[in-house]
Target: Imidazolonepropionase
Amino acid sequence: MTLSARNRPFRIALLSLALLSLVGAAPPPANADEALSLYADATVIDGTGAPPRAHQDILVRGQRIVAVAPHGTIAQAEGAKRIDLSGRFVMPGLIDTHVHLATPPDDARARAILRRNLYGGVTAVRDMADDVRPVAELGRAALAGEIAAPDIYYTALMAGPPFFQDPRVLAVTLGVTPGKAPWMQAIDDRTDLRTAVTLARGTSATAIKIYADLPPRLVKAITAEAHRQNIPVWAHSAVFPTRPADVIAAGADTVSHVCYLAYQVEPVMLAAYEDRTPVNEALLAPEGDDPVIAGLYRAMLKRGTILDATGSLFVRYDKARQQHPEKRRLRCSGAATTRLTRQAWKAGVPISTGTDFVRGYRSDWPDVHEELFFLARDVGMPPLAVIRSATLVGAQAAGQAAEMGSIEPGKLANFLVLAADPAADIGNIRTIETVVKRGRAYPRGDYRPTTKAEMGDGDDD
Model:
């Protein structure tokens, strides 16, 4: 019996996916660390937005939280290693929902970024389109504890054929015809979407990213097929020429870049992603909430769509342009980006903390701290709301809320030990004493700063 030419690619992709699933389902090693640790007498900020709880104990067995209860009341704690946290504050690990670790691939740089992230409190990241070959290996090494790094959840990208003339694509699909790699596929009306999504899943990607240069009908069709195959869709909030309203209506689980939502007010949508014409901000309401944007936020609330705002990128870029006015404008000003994010927060839209930039080697802290500061200081969100965005909402955006994002029994032991209260001042996020990721402690004092040899010189926006 022979495979038909029509079905052969699909069946091969399905077999590859099945083999990968078997590998991924391998049981943990028999010698997995199941030691008990009791983090005693801390003030716990659990990530849900609830008020801090003083004098709490957290019992950890191996990689997971077993119990959280008032100090001295956990019966199972007998024999546990005790870590006294009196006077300390504990909150969930941070999640950066928008990073790029391998465009182009550079192993030393990626490892340096990941090290800085972990020791600065980031216990998970969403990689939003890269060469997944090195990213998958970094993710494996992070899970195994072989490198100091957050857990990595990465995407397989889909875009229209014009996008694959971008030089960045050549760097992340080396050895494969651009648009043909399973992790970076060119999509048009001739594409068998069932096969395309299956190939994407075969890369072990967490989600499909819908990136650019696709009409509304294909954005909708990709999303529907991805969801049929039980894989989330993370999309740009405008896919050019697809308007934000159509991206949201298609059912994307998360949308990135609050700035792009403003293209909904344009009378004529940009025909292609490659057209970098900025938003005409004069079309937004001169003050107060913009009614067109309000309609988008109502639709997002109805569908449960998460906004990966990346606001600090635009604010910091505006500041850089003040010193270097020759730099080209981004699609939105920092002021418009702040205003759009504030309207989203007031409307109740869940906002995660993504960055989409990398600061140079001289920085000692993760880039996502800047997004927390943006939400608190520019947008005006209370610290507890910012913490929820950076933890529980981030876990929801990554599709990992059952495993992380809040401090509660059954979830991974991913949390930060701080010397000062981040619920009083979000700046206290930088009083980290220890990061615990999957039950393993990483003292801040052990952090080895990034170097020019690892990172190169300058920032990457």
